[in-house]
Amino acid sequence: MGLGIELKADGGALLIVDVITGSPAERAGIRKNDRIIEVDGQPTSKFSTDQAADLLQGPEGSTCQVVVRNEAGQTRKLAVR
């Protein structure tokens, strides 16, 4: 099961191109143009885009921890179910 986001690689991070309305990502507070810089404690810069996207997949009901940075450079840690 995915988070309901469209991603693209962007300088070692995953740029959020789009967030699906009503998706787990939207409910967790992820917004368009945020950058995911960490997934479950691992920096996204260590992985290819596909590998990092795979880290965001899991069984329905599971939770992953992501750190996102917005356009203003502020970071926040979110749990996405």
Helix content: 10-25%
Number of E strands: 6
Strand content: 35-45%
What is the ordering of alpha helices and beta strands?
EEHEEHEE
The major β-sheet equals: 6 strands, antiparallel
Low-confidence stretches: none
Report how far apart the termini are.
10 Å
Mean pLDDT: 90
Q: Quickly give the structural class.
A: mainly beta
The DSSP helix count reads 2
Which outline best applies? Answer: globular
**Rg over alpha carbons:** 11 Å
Secondary structure elements and pairings:
Elements: E1 5-10, E2 13-19, H1 24-28, E3 35-39, E4 42-43, H2 49-55, E5 64-69, E6 75-80
Antiparallel strand pairs: 1-2, 2-3, 3-4, 3-5, 5-6
Task: Characterise this structure.
- The chain is mainly beta and 81 residues long.
- Helix content is 15%, strand content 40%.
- The protein has two helices and six strands, in the order ββαββαββ.
- The protein has helices spanning 24-28, 49-55; strands at 5-10, 13-19, 35-39, 42-43, 64-69, 75-80.
- Strands 1, 2, 3, 4, 5 and 6 form a six-stranded antiparallel β-sheet that branches.
- A hairpin with a 2-residue loop joins strand 3 and strand 4.
- It is globular.
- The relative contact order is 0.25.
- The mean pLDDT is 90.
Key terms:
81 residues; single chain; 6 strands
